[in-house]
Structures are given as structure tokens and as C-alpha cells.
Records
---
Amino acid sequence: MRVIVSAGGTGGHIYPALAIINKIRAKEPDSEFLFIGTHNRMEKDIVPKYSINYVPLTIVGIERKHFLRNIKTLRYFLKSIKDAKKIIKEFNPDIVIGVGGYVTAPVIYAAKKLGYKTLIHEQNSVLGLSNRFLLKYADVVAISFESTINYINDIKKVVFTGNPCSEEALKKTKMNKSDLGLLNKKKLVLIVMGSLGSVVINNKMKLMLSLFNNKDYEVLFITGKNYYEDFKDLELADNIKIVPYVDDMSRLMKATDLMISRAGATTMSEIIALKVPSILIPSPHVTNNHQLKNAMDLQDKGAALLIEEKDLEGDVLVRTVDKLLNNETKYNKMKKNLSRLVIDDSATRIYNTIRNLISGRKDDEKHNK
């Protein structure tokens, strides 16, 4: 199989794209890949490490607050379509896949205009701006949340696959808590606000962490590498551990009893796949407030609790943790509700969808536009 994959901007787009590539490689080892990303975002450094050919497009996102700057954005977009057409023709793929980020818009658009099969994947419960634009140019729209179908008119092209990162997480081995100086006999509450951390939440945690002193469970707070120095001198009880970063978070999640986190797409997929009860504190500083909608989707299904950032004051967090951990019936019901949402073969579903889409390809439609 010859595959072009496009994704960019954040790990929430890049890692699902890599999970799809990994699954195709496992199923068809002779497959060839080309990854099209941006010229200046994190994918340009991450993707080549996986022995994947990488081609950048010079493109920038829409400026919502500075409308006149979008004249330049439009020029980049139109040039990117032209460049993408050239790249696609030269590689001649069996399929072109978009996994989110503004770089996918010219790539999928160009591929469709050239007559190639196209698939887009949406990780969040609401469609991102690029995927909304690409709905009519995608042959298949793969979604991670069933509720996303409410935003799509042509439901015949929709396939509910889940997030491919969930299948990757399930393969991981459980982390030994003692490696982090924790006790295996005690319950673990994990607090983490993404790989970089959150300055807003961290400032609140400086005041709140001491409220967890001497609880009968342990708390592991991951600050993010840039914020650890702000916490290392805090005087806290032995049941509270603070670290700057933990590699391979899904392994740690397998050893976690309760997770307090943001509500990004990849984190949500792993919470569901690993059936980790959670208290979600969505970032309010994301496009279309999609983290809040992700969290509400899980809360509405009884599979998580939600505290908005603006409401994270006083002892609200420790009270919420205590109420959940001390109520075995409520805790087990949340795990049961999570188990109903688990898709343990998401990447496989996407692979099968790709294979079916390719098998229906008409070769004579290509290159005529």
C-alpha cells in the first residue's frame, strides 16, 4: 500500500496519525508512506524519527483575532494546494489520509481534486475547522466519539472507529509504581495537565496540594518540565510526590486509580481504553472549546466527572476526589460506564476502512483534473 498521511500542529493529531501508520505497517509491511506536515510545527521533528519520509508545506493557520493577516494565510493556502498536487502526483498513493491540523486542508482538497481516495479522522467530539472544511472532500470521515455524527450531514460516509491511540495504549505494559517511589499497596491519584503542564492549574495546585496531606491514598503531581522548580521546595506529606515529567503516560495510567487531567483527544481515548476513572478539567483556551465538549460527552455518559477551570477553587478538588474514592459503588459504576465505551481495535477499524476504500478505487479517475 502507498499512503500519504497529513497531520500537524499538536500531538493530538500527530500521534493518532502515527498509530494509523503503525497499524498499516503491521498489516502490510511493504507499505510506503509519505507524511505531509507543516514547515515549522512539532511534526517536522517527531515524524522523521519513525523512519517516515517527511515533506513540509509552508502554511499557517487562520488568525481569528487579526482578520487582515488572513490575506497572507489565504496566499499560503492556495500555494499549498498547488504544492500538494505536485507532491501527490509524484508519490501516486493508493489513499491520502488527513488526521487533523490546518495542514490537512490543502492536502485532502488537492487529493480529492486529483481523483485520489481520501479519508479524514476526527479525534474530538466536535469537528475541527479543517475537518469541517474537508467534509465534502473526504470519501470517509472516521470519528472518535459517536456524538460527532450530529455535526455531519452526510452520515453515509461516517465510520465510528474511535481514536487509534487507544489501541496503542492497550498494548503497553503496566508501570511499576515503585519505580516512581510510590507504594503498590495504596491507591494512586494522578494529576497531570498534558506533557507541558499548565501555568494556571499549577498556580492553583501550589495552594491545593497540601490539602491532600496524609490521605490514605497517594498523589502524583506531574508539573511539566518548565514548572518543576516552582514546586520542589514545597513541604508536603510523604503521600504526595511531585515530578516534572513521566515518559510513556499510558503505562502509568494502567497503574492509576483516579486521574485528574485536561480533556484532550488522546488523553480521552486512553482514559476510555484503559478504563481509568477521571476528573476532567478542560482547557478553556482551545479552538471551539472542544475540550469542554469532550469532557461533557464523558460526563453525560457517567464515565467521568467535570470541574471547569474557573470553578477550581478552595478544597473542591480534594472533596471531589474523596467522594469518588470513598464511594465504591459510584467508582465501580464509572468504570463500568467506561467499559461500555471501550473500542479496543480502533486502529484496526481504520485499517479495514482504508483497505475497503482502496479496493473500490477506480484507477482511470486519477490524474484527469
---
Amino acid sequence: MEHNHNHQTRISGVHGRTLLLCIIINVAFVAAEAVVGICSNSTGLLSDAGHNLSDVLGIMLALVALRMEKSGSRDSERVSRYVTLANAALLLAAVALIVKESISKIIAPEEVDGAAIMITAGVAIFVNGFTTWLLMRKNDGNINMKAAYLHAATDTLVSVGVVISGLVISLTGWSVVDPVISLVITAVIAVPAVKLFVDTVRLIKKG
């Protein structure tokens, strides 16, 4: 039993270090992507940065869950639920802001740098792909690690969509494609965020 406990602790430690590395990589990239999005006037990149931020929050929650697995504390579980609720609320607020900005740019299109969008989203594919590989490699059947790597895999696919929008803008000059893609991405974020918010509220009410 002692040997098994030590083994589980070691595995949890490896998972924790992997999750922490993924958080650092993705936080740095989210900041860079947001800056490029602002400079290139791209709501698509900003919404992709928001989606990547949701990935970071998901990884953080996985890290919290791993810590709770070790402690088994009831208080830790309660705190975790409120952290989850706050994360869901922040995501929904970000979605509302991006939708507002996207609609205004559909009504009054502005010039967008398609090349900057393609390059930045291409880097996002690499970053998210590397994160997915790291999490998948350290999965070991752990449900929290699996949830985290599914988050990263989804982000990789979303970034592919942003690259396509950048390509279309570069070839055609149709800047309206950028906010349209942005609305699609925000829908991808909003659906699980709403579900997470509702489910967490129910759990908190149950106590």
C-alpha cells in the first residue's frame, strides 16, 4: 500500500509539472497573440487568444483537481467549484465583448492584415499542437490530464480556422471574413462555457 501511495504521488507530481509547463507556454503565447490581434485589427486573433485563454484556464483547473486528489479536503472541493464558476463567468464576459466588437466590424468593415493573421495563427497551431502532445504523452489514463489535452486539441483546430480566414483575406481582401470567423470561434467557446457555468451553479447549490 505504501509503495502504491508513493507511485501515485510520483505520477501526480509528473502530471503537475507537465500542466505547469503547458500553462507557462500558453500564457506567454496568449499575451503575444492578443498584442498582434490589436495591432493587426483582427477580432479573429483576439477571439482565438480568448479561446487559448480558456485552454489555460482548463489546464489550471486540471492542476487544481490534481492537488485536490492528493488532499481529499472538502474545503478544497468547495473552493475549486467557486474558482470554476469565476473562470466560466470571465469566459462569458470575454465572449460578450468579442461578439459586440465582431458585429460592429461586420456592419462597418475595417482593413485587416491577413498575413499577420496567418503567421500568428500558424504559430498558435504549433503551440497548441505541442501542448496537446505534452498532455497526451503524460496522460496515463488520468481524467484531468485527458480533459486538459482535449482542450488543447480543440484549440489547435480553432487556430486552423483562423489561418484559413487570414488566407482568404490575403487573397480576396474580404476583411469581413475576420469578424465572421471570430463569431464562429466565440460560439465554440460559449457553448461549453455556459454549460460549465450552469453545472457549477448546480453543484454549489447542492453544497
---
Amino acid sequence: MAGPGACGYVNSPPVTLHLRPSAPIAPDVLLPGDPGRAMALAQLLMVQPKMSNHNRGLWGYSGETPEGLALTIQSTGMGGPSAAIVLTELAELGVRRAIRVGTCAGISPELELGSLLRVEGAVGDDGTSRALGGGERVTPDAGLMAQLAEAGPESVAATVASTDLFYEPDGEGDARRRLASWTERGAEAVEMEAAALFTLGPRVGVAVGCLLVVTDVFAEGERVRIEEDPLAAAAERMGVVAAAALSLR
């Protein structure tokens, strides 16, 4: 089996079950959940990106930034189980640093739509991080956290809660109780993948960080959603900061 070179695998990569690379996988990767966001960030951040995966609809792209950083942008799908599958297989393909670039709902009244959060901890309210042995609170790689702060000083350090549920089937009362529980445990926003990735990363030899855009806030108990154009602009800022963080050594 070939080992990873400077920009990916020199010869044939390992055979993975869900990712089927058709281009070299870089040691550094950005992990958006949304395949469409993966494509948009690849077009923004890389010179002549090549699609490296389309299997199972998990679009991935590889190439180099204008500064010469070998980079892969690989979508994970939604939720901890899918993200854990993708990170495990990327580790087998030679990835050594990964930054989740995604979205979250702000539950702190101080957060605003479009804000960038660099995640300093995740409350594990999801099944995947618990199944992997994660505790009540899991943390990112300290080096990547510091590099995200340096690359994006406008970002806000925050703790998030990671959950398996996007929709609350039991109604508004249950949602309020869940929000209150997350707040009591120190969470300022909620998303679905960070705890799983933070827990899994050290087990598979990948340093993991996380940068998020606030796309929803709760104003007087009502959920307010960001509009599409501001979301696209914020996602571009997020991608630029994350790629810049990976370029720091």
C-alpha cells in the first residue's frame, strides 16, 4: 500500500468503502456537510480543482490554493454518523489535518446571524461521540484552534452542543427544554457534527478543528434564519479563514 506524499498518495490509495478517490487526496482537508458548499468552496479556494469523489453524493474536490497549499474539500453529509465515516476513510487516505466548515444555530443572545465561530469545545449530546467514548465535553486540536484564531481574529471562540436532531418531533416545549439544557452546560450554539469529529480525530490520527457560520438565532423564542446571499458571503469568509489557518505552520 502506498503512503501519502506531499500532495496525496503517490501510487494507488487504499480502497475505501464510501469514498472512491479519482484524484489525489491532500493531507489537509476542509469538511463542509453540504456537497454544494464543497463545490463552491473548491471554486473559490483552489486553482483548477478536480473532483476527487462523487460516490454516494459526497462530493469532494482536490487541488492547490493560489499560495501552493495542497487541499482537499470533502463533504460529509449531515450528522455525526456520516461525518465519522468520512473522517475515518480520509484518515486511511492520508489526511492528517481537518477543519469542519459548517453552520450552526446560535442559542446565546449575543450571537448574530453571519457570525463566525471557532469552536473551542463541544457538548456531546449526540450518539456518535458517546459511542466513540467521548465525554460530556470534547475539544478540538489545540494547534488548529490557535491557527484559526490567528487566521480569523474576527471569529468568536465558542462552545457548541452537538445533537442528532435537527427537527424536534415532540413540539415547542421539548425544544425549549433542550435549549435550556445546552445553555446550562455552557453551549452558545448548536450543530450536529463537531463532537463526533473531535472525539474521532485523535483515534484515527487526524488533528481536527471547527469553524462555523451562525445561520439561525432565537429571537424572543422564535427561530430566525439567515437569507441566502448573506449566507453565501459568510460561507466564503469561513472558507478563506479555514484555508488560511491550514497554511500556517
---
Amino acid sequence: MFELIFLGTSSSAPSVHRGLSAHMILHRHYRFLLDCGEGTQRQILQSGLGFKRLDKVLLTHGHLDHILGLGGLISTLARWENLENLEIFGGKDALKRVSNLLFSVVFPDGRPPVKIDLCPLSPGLIMEDDKFALSTFPVFHRGSDSYGFVFEEKTRRPFLAEKAEALGVPFGPERARLVRGEVIVLDDGRTIHPDDVLGETIPGTKYVHIGDVGRTRDLLDICRDADTLVIESTYVAAEADMARKFGHMTAAAAAKLARDANVKTLILTHLSRRYFERDIRQEAQAIFPHTYVARDFDHFHITRGGATRLKNPQPTTSDQ
């Protein structure tokens, strides 16, 4: 399971009720900040998440509405949090801008009090452990060096304790070895195979997050069978020409991608102030009914069944 908290859902410029792009993704002991628009640190505080263990930042691209909050946030982290190392992942263009912001403005002496690693992205795996993998892929957005992200739990086979008990497998390292797929030999000489005590394979949860993007034809295979897809929806179909001009997405195009890729849940964000929330929601749901339009501080659980909204701020007049 992944937890997703929207910290900013506006496009280009903030509105009274929507901050600029920022999201927190939680998975076990991991905390990822995905994009960091202006005002993100205040949104983190207002959400109640706080700054503890916030040591990984993922950037979709280097446009200012997605990175400008990094200066203030990292200044705060360096001064007040017990943080030894901060990793910032992004394309080369994004990291060049971030480097200028941090080492020319925030830390002009070039000696930040916390170790900052700028990690260039390339398509493929970023990190993994025995239960989870994070990978990235390129997307097209107005000439920028842009990336999307796939958060995916690994498949697993549940350990069937009753079968192990019946076979006389003792508690301890023997059971752990079977879970890892190893064959064991008991003290009485009997050989126990993993298939003897493991159930059917259970697929892991797949969550795809795409920031600003101007076309979907390269994304179908990446998004296929995702339990949740988060993607921008800056425009509606009536202004599709403008969306193409600026390398952005319409609600209808996002919904068609979700439908064609057999996604379970679609969540739209990065909304223009020119529309009511209902404009975006109605256009998308006409094509893909299981669509949410995110608001600041929305909190979702993402599982194999799709996304469940846990916290839904009350709509304002401009949201409805």
C-alpha cells in the first residue's frame, strides 16, 4: 500500500485554495516529496506531516512552479531537522536549476550544513528493496527534460503457517529461508520446498505518477493495469489546441489514457484557475467514471483495489 497526500494542486500559479505542485508519498519507512512548488513547506506543516525523515525529493521537471519551494524547504531542513543527507532526483535541466537555486542563493558559500546529493535521472530503476521498486520514465512536456515515476510493490507469496505447522517446520530462520525461496532440510532429514508452504503469487500495488505532459501515445504500456494513475489536467477538451501548444493535458485525454490502459483509479491534478473543478470532473468521468479531481490536502490510500480517498477537504465555491 502507498499513501498519497496532495500538498498543491494548481497549475502555473497558486490560487486562494490551491497551492503549487507538491505531493507526499509514504510507503513503510520511506517518505518521498514529489515536486516542490512555492509554499510547499507551509503546506507540509499545515497537512500535519512535518519534516521528519524527509530525505528524498523527486522532481518531474525543472519548471519553477515545480521546484521553487526547494530553496526555503531545504534551508529549513538544514537548520532545524536532524537530517544527514538529502537526495534530489531529477532530469539534468531540473538539477541545473536546483543547483543554481541552492548554491548561488540559499548556500552561496557552497557549504550547506546537510549533505545534498543531486541525482540525475535516466529511464529505469531508481531504487529498490525486497518489497518495493521505484522507477522512472521520460515524458514529453514543452521541450523540458521531464520524467514520470512508477511506485510498485513486488509480487509476493503468503506464508501458510498452518501448512508449515503440519510439516513440522520450526519457528525461526528455517521459515525465513522458505519465504526467500530457499529449500531447507529438517533435522529428521525431510526436504521442504517453498511451494510446500507458500500460497499463490499476489501481485503488488502499482501507482504511476505523471506531472506535466503533452501527449499520451508513449505512456500506454507504462500505465497499463496501474492501480492508480495520477496525471495533470490543465485544460478541458474545448481548449485542446492550447493544451498542445503549451505541452499540457486535457481532462478528456487523461481519461482516455486511463480507460485504454485498464487503470483502476484516475486522479487529476495541476488544475488551471480558468475552470471550476466540476468542469474537469464531468469531462473525465464521462469517459472514465472512476476519476477523482484532487484538492489540496486530499489523502489517498492506494492498494490493489485502486485509490480510496481518506480526507476530502470541503469544496469552495471555485471548486464546485
